[in-house]
């Protein structure tokens, strides 16, 4: 899998600077709006913190996407782009309303499937591939939403993933723009949080990242999954462990590996950096000659991380996990 600095740099255009500025302005406005995320028993924070930073990320991305594509001499009104915009807007609106009013899970899931369908059919792929993408996109959307529980983890993971997709030549202008929006948000959220991005950022952003897997690039799907391996493994392992224990899978909990790492005493910024490292390692693993070698290289650090965290949790976490 070739990565090119030239491909990455080719994605930088003037609207990226406008997007960063616009993102910061919208984030500042959301802080002033004072829509608070109050801590509950499963939260990692202990005091109310504003949420809605995702409005800055997604708002800046959507407003600057057209000028970015135009100045990079790419068509704007194409099926894939319009499908992506429609899906992101639908999911962003529903996610923000959920941040405000807390909808039942079935409504959120319906919005995720609807948004993923808009994106898939906008790409014009065959029905079997579209169905496969919809299922994968919904899983990635929920996975990044589940993982968005500590400062910088989800936003940094998506930013690094976007930059590496761009470096691989997969829609460089679009993914550099999205990465710029996420990087403009990160100083507000990591290492100490002045604002959370909320579902509007984690779910809509995850849909953008998942869109990368559907691009007409030989390694797009494999690369996207490899870059998100830390998130995907954490969620799959946690679901399997909870299913084996007979727990209700839809019930909120604090049993993800990243949560167990913090509950066992690891510093929160260190855990976040570990998950960023998994993204970079996923890119390294894609240099393997065979897909099975890539899979093995991706899996190895996850197994080591899982064993280490479970060992720590058994020794240091007193309550049920």
TrEMBL record:
Top-level taxon in the UniProt lineage: Bacteria
Subcellular localization, as worded in the UniProt entry: Cell membrane
InterPro entries, alphabetized: Glycosyl_transferase_4
Name of the protein in its database record: Undecaprenyl-phosphate alpha N-acetylglucosaminyltransferase
Bilayer-spanning residue ranges: 12-31, 52-71, 77-97, 109-140, 160-186, 219-239, 260-282, 294-311
MF annotations from Gene Ontology: glycosyltransferase activity
Bilayer topology: Multi-pass membrane protein
One Pfam family in the UniProt entry: Glycos_transf_4
Record key words, sorted: Cell membrane, Glycosyltransferase, Membrane, Transferase, Transmembrane, Transmembrane helix
